[in-house]
Amino acid sequence: MLVGNEEAFGGKAIRLEHLQIIAGKSAIPMAAVTLNISGELFTATEEGNGPIDAAFKAIRSIVRHNIKLEEYLVQAITRGSDDVGKVHIQIENRGNYYYGFAGHTDILTASVEAFINAINKIS
Question: Who wins on pLDDT, 122 or 33?
């Protein structure tokens, strides 16, 4: 699934190819992320103070932009064990604000896809 459009991020659309998260009690939160940027794959692994922080750090290390997370909101869309979570994100880059949105049954995946959706809007 393509996140954003082809004109985003300096003409290079970013798509999430792979996400692996390690988290839990007594575990150091880590994330491995592979991004497809205009057909080229880039992978990074980072630690964080939680699984989402680790994933966002991995993405930042690939895109190499000074991106600051300003707002993070999770909403439940449906009810039950197969619930879909929707994530709204606001980021700041060079004094400009960008919004990203994504929904998924896995809230970590939704978070990463929303972050990428916002990054894709940076021109």
Answer: 33
